[in-house]
């Protein structure tokens, strides 16, 4: 097994092979070979065959987009590796089942003998599967020469022509505003000052028109005499510093550069030719993010005259910031306000689709053509390529067929649309490729959330886990890498923090995944095939079909009434989502056997009881709701065992908690939630039996334990009998709630005292309908927002420094004397404050809302008032 680790560490694998080799190193796989239960010679043969396939797989992955036979070969290799992964799953499942049998079973000799025979049958079955897999790989590797596949190649664009500065302006539409904005930046001193070379970035996905816009700017007459020298460099990838410098020198001298491979000579030659000269350099299609390489170029460019400029075009926002680590003007063509208008899209389409651009001669095609243009989503490359395709057949039936067909598949063979997007895919780091391809499981126009997608990647084993990062942190990096390259874009509903893939990007993902992924919403005609490894549907499918997809299972929003007990045999299941299954009333009793379960979602269901012994799920990280039961194995103590929980948590039926003390015979204690180290959001609602919030709430962990150390938001609501909130150990009070930012206490009419004094991170405090509460507002520089409603005036007579927003409602005896230190107050809302007659307008107040304050007579504006005041409502 050590040989595998060494070999794997020394090779660069295709993403799918890399993931497989990583899984081969897992303990369950190794143990079955090391223990002699499986023939380790099979492992050696499998290793050699996979490496043989991997040697040409990179070349094949690049050629599959233009060579259908190679695509078939790639799919066959993928299918074989997926089959091998299925074998690993079976091995892992068998190992997990044996562990569970040992943990939960008490077997006699007959049962043990039966288990041994079962293991023997399993080993024979696995060995047969590996032999069949080796036979398939033998055949596939033998085909590589027939297909012209070569070792050690691939990864760079093939037969790609470099861009030039020339452009046919008669075929450009809708970029006038962007062009003017960039030209104005070129002619100005720029925010960085006249002494520095200014950098302007044009960013956006492939095919959106970055190069075209740069060409328009470069050739504009206004710049003709503004610069001493201009140079256009098509950078490509990998980044070649020698080529970049030689190209600039040749543009300046108008003659060939004879310096070939001496970087020092090139740098000094470029420096001498640019010293004191005002220049414009365009670096088109930049991918390089290694700052050290840019330093070499900058050291030569910095000797140019004042107001020299560099324009870069890139698909990656990070590249746009790497030139010198400063913020530069960025024209982001991926933003909706930079998309071509409908009129410009149609004009561009007509230019390519109709002879002489005359669409009036073909009125029968206008409606269909408009719908085709709409599918292009404002992408110039998509519009021009489809227009050129349709120009060859000006027939309504043919245009309608293309409109309603799987157009993107056709574009692989006949147009330039997908190749532009393929470049974005090809240059993704290998692990990112498979994460991106997995997204083909989403229907078109589907809005998804970052954290939900990362969980799916985790469940599929697509994320590595380095020693210094969690898988969630790796997933976060992967996600924003895809956002940076415009493969993911923010949804228009930004307040929901959702993302979407452009239809063209979605089609690219689906082409790559092919039969291995089935999105039933996008294609109802397709069936689940033997190759299908990932499946999504809004329909309700039987368990037999779903058991194949057993690392992540989502039955969300289905009409399922009962989960089969067989789910509990899916030992590798990591995510189970049954949210919005309104007819589902119970989870399987043996859920505690799902020892690899990380995330369990069951909000908006009929489930009102937890399965027994849920605390055995030591890997569980997400549990949005816990329902306390009365009996052993169902109680609050099970929640305390789930030490990896994070995120939001609601606790129901706390009246079932068996209190350690029975003060006054009626007092319930809150459970030791302070011991959950990853809990971030806690709401406690409707606990009328709780009289005090005491030390039980914080828990009694180790002396170094910081109760509620990760908690960011805490809410107490409708606790009608609660009278006092005791702080955590007076001498150590500052150790609790160290990260709490939002505190809300509402409808606790008997609560008289007890706000924590030390809340160093508190930013927002809301107290509503707590008329007896007399307490000191926490003193912290982070507190910027206060909201009071129907509260004791003692709270209002305090003046924490730094408050920027204050809202006071239904406080009849309110006064706001001038001596209070509201010097930072910017927004003030006063509502239903009946006895308020006058108050000062504080120095920085900008927004004032007064509603139903009937006795108000005057506002006093001091000489020190600094801002224009906006009176929203009076």
Count of distinct strands = 28
- Which strands sit side by side, in order, in the main sheet? 14-15-16-18-20-21-22-23-24-26-28
Quickly give the structural class.
alpha/beta
Question: Helical amount among residues, as a percent range?
Answer: 25-40%
Cα distance spanning the termini? 78 Å
Query: How confident is the prediction overall: mean pLDDT?
Result: 75
Main pleated sheet? 11 strands, parallel
Query: What fraction of residues sit in β-strands?
Result: 5-15%
User: Radius of gyration in whole Å, from Cα?
Assistant: 33 Å
Please tally the helical runs, counting DSSP H or I stretches of 4 or more residues. Answer: 26
- Outline: globular
Identify low-pLDDT runs: 1-13, 155-161, 538-549, 660-668
List keywords for this structure.
disordered N terminus; five-stranded parallel sheet; 874 residues; 26 helices; alpha/beta; eleven-stranded parallel sheet; 14% strand
Describe this structure in words.
The structure is a single chain. The chain is an alpha/beta fold. Helix 2 runs parallel beside helix 5 (68-104), helix 10 packs across helix 11 and helix 13 packs parallel to helix 15. The termini are far apart.
Q: Brief overview, please?
A:
This protein is an alpha/beta fold.
Topology of this structure?
Layout lengths: L1 H8 L5 H10 L2 H8 L5 H24 L4 H37 L4 H34 L33 H12 L10 E6 L6 H9 L10 E6 L6 H13 L9 H12 L4 E8 L4 H11 L7 E6 L2 H6 L7 E3 L9 H12 L12 H10 L4 H12 L4 H9 L2 H8 L2 H10 L3 H9 L9 E2 H10 L11 H14 L4 E2 L7 E3 L2 H11 L3 E3 L14 E3 L6 H4 L5 E3 L20 E3 L21 E3 L23 E3 L8 H5 L5 E7 L25 E8 L6 E2 L1 H4 L14 E5 L6 E2 L16 E5 L17 E7 L14 E7 L1 H4 L8 E5 L17 E5 L6 E4 L5 E5 L6 E4 L8 E4 L1
Parallel strand pairs: 1-4, 1-5, 2-3, 3-4, 9-10, 11-12, 12-13, 14-15, 15-16, 16-18, 17-19, 18-20, 20-21, 21-22, 22-23, 23-24, 24-26, 25-27, 26-28
Antiparallel strand pairs: 6-8, 7-8
Helix pairs in contact: 2-5, 2-19, 4-5, 4-6, 5-6, 7-8, 9-10, 10-11, 13-14, 13-15, 14-16, 20-21
């Amino acid at each position: 097994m050590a040989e595998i680790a060494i070999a794997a560490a020394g090779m660069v694998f295709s993403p799918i092979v890399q993931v497989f080799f990583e899984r081969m190193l897992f303990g369950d796989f190794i143990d079955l070979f090391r223990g002699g239960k499986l023939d380790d010679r099979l492992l050696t043969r499998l290793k050699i065959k996979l490496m043989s396939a991997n040697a040409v797989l990179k070349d094949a992955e690049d050629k599959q987009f233009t060579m259908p036979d190679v695509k078939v070969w790639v799919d066959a290799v993928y299918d074989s590796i997926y089959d091998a992964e299925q074998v690993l799953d079976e091995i892992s499942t068998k190992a997990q089942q044996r562990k569970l049998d040992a943990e939960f079973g008490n077997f006699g000799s007959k049962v043990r003998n039966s288990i041994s025979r079962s293991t023997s049958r399993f080993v024979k079955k696995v060995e047969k599967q590996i032999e069949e897999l080796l036979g398939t790989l033998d055949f596939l590797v033998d085909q590589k020469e027939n297909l012209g596949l070569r070792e050690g190649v691939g990864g760079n664009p093939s037969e790609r022509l470099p861009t030039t500065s020339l452009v046919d302006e008669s075929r450009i539409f809708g970029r006038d505003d962007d062009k003017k904005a960039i030209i104005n930046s070129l002619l100005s001193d720029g925010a960085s000052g006249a002494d520095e070379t200014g950098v302007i970035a044009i960013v956006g996905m492939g095919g959106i028109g970055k190069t075209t816009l740069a060409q328009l700017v470069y050739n504009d007459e206004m710049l003709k005499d503004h610069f001493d020298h201009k140079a256009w460099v098509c950078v490509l990838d990998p980044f070649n510093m020698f080529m970049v410098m030689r190209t600039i020198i040749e543009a300046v001298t108008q003659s060939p550069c004879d310096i070939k491979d001496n970087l020092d000579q090139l740098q000094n030659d470029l420096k001498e030719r640019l010293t004191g000269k005002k220049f414009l350099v365009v670096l088109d299609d930049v991918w390089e993010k290694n700052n050290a390489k840019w330093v070499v170029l900058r050291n030569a460019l910095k000797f140019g005259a004042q107001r020299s400029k560099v324009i870069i075009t890139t698909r990656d926002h990070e590249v746009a910031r790497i030139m010198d680590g400063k913020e530069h003007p960025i024209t982001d063509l991926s933003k909706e306000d930079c998309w071509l208008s409908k009129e410009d899209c149609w004009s561009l389409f007509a230019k390519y689709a109709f002879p002489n651009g005359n669409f009036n001669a073909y009125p029968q095609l206008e409606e269909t053509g408009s719908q085709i243009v709409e599918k292009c989503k404002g992408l110039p490359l998509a519009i021009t390529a489809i227009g050129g395709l349709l120009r060859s057949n000006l027939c309504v039936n043919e245009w309608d067929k293309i409109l309603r067909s799987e157009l993107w598949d056709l574009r692989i063979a006949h147009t330039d649309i997908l190749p532009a997007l393929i470049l974005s895919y090809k240059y993704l780091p290998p692990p990112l490729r498979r994460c991106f391809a997995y997204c083909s499981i989403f229907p078109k126009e589907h809005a998804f959330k970052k954290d939900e997608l990362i969980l799916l990647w985790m469940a599929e084993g697509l994320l590595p886990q380095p020693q210094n990062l969690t898988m969630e942190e790796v997933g976060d990096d992967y996600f924003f890498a895809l956002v940076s390259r415009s493969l993911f874009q923010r949804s228009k509903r930004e307040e929901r923090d959702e993302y979407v893939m452009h239809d063209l990007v979605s089609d690219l993902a689906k082409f790559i995944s092919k039969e291995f992924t089935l999105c039933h919403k996008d294609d109802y005609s397709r069936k689940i095939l033997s190759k299908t490894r990932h499946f999504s549907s809004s329909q309700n499918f039987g368990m037999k079909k779903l058991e194949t997809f057993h690392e992540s299972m989502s039955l969300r929003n289905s009409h399922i009434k009962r989960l089969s007990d067989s789910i509990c045999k899916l030992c590798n299941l990591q995510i189970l989502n049954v949210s919005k299954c309104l007819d589902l009333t119970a989870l399987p009793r043996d859920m505690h056997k799902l020892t690899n379960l990380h995330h369990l979602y069951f909000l908006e269901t009929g489930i009102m009881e937890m399965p027994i012994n849920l605390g055995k799920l030591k890997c569980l990280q997400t549990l949005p709701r816990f329902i306390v039961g009365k009996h052993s194995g169902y109680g609050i103590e099970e929640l305390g065992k789930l030490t990896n929980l994070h995120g939001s948590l609601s606790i129901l039926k706390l009246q079932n908690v068996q209190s350690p003390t029975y003060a006054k015979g009626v007092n319930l204690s809150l459970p030791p939630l302070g011991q959950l180290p990853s809990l971030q959001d806690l709401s406690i609602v409707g606990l009328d039996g709780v009289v005090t919030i005491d030390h039980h709430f914080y828990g009694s962990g180790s002396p170094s334990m910081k109760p509620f150390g990760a908690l960011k938001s805490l809410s107490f609501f409708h606790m009608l009998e609660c009278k006092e909130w005791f702080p955590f150990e007076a001498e150590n009070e500052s150790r609790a709630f160290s990260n709490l930012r939002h505190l809300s206490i509402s409808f606790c009419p008997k609560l008289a005292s007890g706000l924590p004094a030390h809340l160093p991170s508190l930013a927002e405090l809301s107290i509503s309908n707590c008329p007896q509460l007399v307490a000191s507002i926490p003193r912290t520089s982070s507190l910027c927002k206060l909201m009071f409603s129907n509260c004791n005036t003692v709270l209002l007579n305090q003046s924490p420094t730094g408050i920027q927003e204050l809202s006071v409602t239904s406080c009849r005896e309110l006064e706001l004397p001038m001596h209070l230190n509201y010097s930072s107050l910017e927004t003030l809302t006063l509502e239903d404050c009946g006895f308020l007659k006058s108050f000062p307008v504080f120095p920085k107040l900008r927004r004032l809302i007064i509603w139903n304050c009937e006795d108000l007579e005057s506002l006093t504006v001091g000489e020190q008032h600094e801002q224009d005041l906006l009176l929203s409502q009076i």
